[in-house]
């Protein structure tokens, strides 16, 4: 078990990698516990839940709405939750996102933490204090910042994760390496088969290193005012593809990373050979059938949280392991998308 602090001015948080469900009693308050989970996770692990009132939602993006968040708040009130209560989100990225939002809103804020059950949430969604629900087709348009007191990452829980969800989590794992740690990128590339075999030693080491990257960025920029924006690499295009084609988040991000690397080459930031290197690794992971850009992609990007008037903050690469933030005019991005539709790496 290893602990990584992700403390900010807004609150203290610790990520526990390599922990076990048996560690939960020592981390939780003796009373006033409420658990938010989804039906799939409850069916798998409900018997291991600590004593608590359990609130269940449906799995998947369909639950990331204000309606579901409001319903959870109503159910908390009916169950007697008050300002001293503690909410534990037990699940993957969707559960973490909506639990964090509910915890930040209910009675203007109650304590909360996560047991992270998917690779996506263990390396990304549960860490950093960003909460959110979707607004129609727009991803995470409504949200807050609220740090969980702890995130418990029991890697044995990944044994029940479907392959497609493991691949989705791998997208965020690779992204952390691509933006910040070239050595980690090559280590992940060399370990793909072990990752898909759920090798516990391999998972623990690579997840730990990825979490350290995100925790360090979050400490320096808790509210995403500057450096933290590099964590959005692949997301501007990825969010559009995720919504348009209903594909898992991390897989959409991997496709978005490929487009962003092509944009980086087009802008003269990234050598072509580096873009090919990224593409080769993602193909080895299983990302081969790329989706076409929607015709209305520019309009959709303009609705993205990262856009500002007639420009958008894009995360580009200068090399594998080094990302930069560039503000691009929408007209320039339009030129690139027309170019990209005609040529892919």
Summarize the structure.
The protein has 14 helices and twelve strands.
How would you describe this structure to a colleague?
The protein is α/β, with parallel strands linked by helices. It folds into two domains: 160 residues, Rossmann fold, CATH 3.40.50.1970; 183 residues, Dehydroquinate synthase-like - alpha domain (Dehydroquinate synthase-like, alpha domain, Up-down Bundle), CATH 1.20.1090. Helix content is 46%, strand content 18%. The chain contains 14 helices and twelve strands. It has a seven-stranded mixed beta sheet with strand order 1-2-9-6-5-3-4. The radius of gyration is 19 Å and the shape is globular.
What's the architecture of the largest domain, going by CATH?
Answer: Up-down Bundle
Classify the helix fraction into a percent range: 40-55%
Shape: globular
Strand content: 15-25%
The name of the CATH superfamily of the largest domain reads: Dehydroquinate synthase-like - alpha domain
Radius of gyration: 19 Å
Structural class: alpha/beta
Please give the alpha-carbon distance between the first and last residues: 41 Å
Poorly predicted tracts of residues: none
CATH class of the largest domain: Mainly Alpha
Strand order of the largest sheet: 1-2-9-6-5-3-4
Q: Quaternary arrangement of the chains shown? A: single chain
């Amino acid at each position: 078990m290893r602990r990584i602090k992700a403390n900010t001015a807004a609150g203290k948080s610790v990520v526990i990698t390599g922990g076990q469900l048996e560690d939960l009693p020592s981390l939780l308050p003796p009373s006033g516990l409420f658990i938010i989970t989804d039906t799939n996770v409850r069916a798998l692990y409900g018997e291991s839940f600590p004593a608590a009132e359990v609130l269940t939602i449906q799995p998947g993006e369909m639950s990331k709405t204000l309606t579901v968040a409001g319903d959870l708040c109503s159910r908390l009130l009916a169950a007697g939750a008050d300002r001293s209560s503690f909410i534990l989100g037990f699940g993957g990225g969707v559960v973490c996102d909506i639990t964090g939002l509910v915890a930040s809103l209910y009675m203007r804020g109650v304590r909360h933490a996560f047991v992270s059950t998917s690779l996506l949430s263990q390396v990304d969604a549960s860490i950093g204090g960003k909460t959110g629900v979707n607004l129609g087709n727009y991803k995470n348009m409504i949200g807050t910042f609220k740090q969980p007191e702890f995130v418990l990452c029991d890697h044995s829980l990944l044994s029940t994760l479907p392959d497609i969800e493991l691949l989705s989590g791998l997208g965020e794992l690779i992204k952390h390496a691509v933006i910040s740690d070239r050595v980690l990128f090559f280590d992940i590339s060399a370990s793909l088969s072990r990752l898909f075999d759920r090798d516990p030693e391999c998972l623990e080491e690579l997840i730990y290193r990825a979490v350290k990257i995100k925790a360090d960025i979050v400490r320096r920029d808790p509210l995403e005012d500057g450096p933290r924006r590099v964590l959005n690499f692949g997301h501007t295009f990825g969010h559009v593809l995720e919504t348009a084609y209903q594909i898992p988040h991390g897989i959409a991000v991997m496709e978005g990373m490929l487009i962003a690397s092509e944009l980086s080459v087009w802008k003269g930031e990234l050598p072509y050979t580096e873009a090919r290197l990224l593409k080769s690794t993602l193909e080895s992971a299983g990302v081969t059938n790329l989706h076409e850009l929607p015709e209305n992609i520019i309009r959709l990007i303009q609705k993205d949280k990262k856009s500002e008037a007639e420009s958008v903050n894009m995360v580009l690469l200068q090399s594998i392991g080094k990302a930069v933030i560039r503000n691009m005019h929408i007209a320039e991005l339009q030129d690139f998308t027309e170019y990209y539709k005609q040529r892919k790496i």
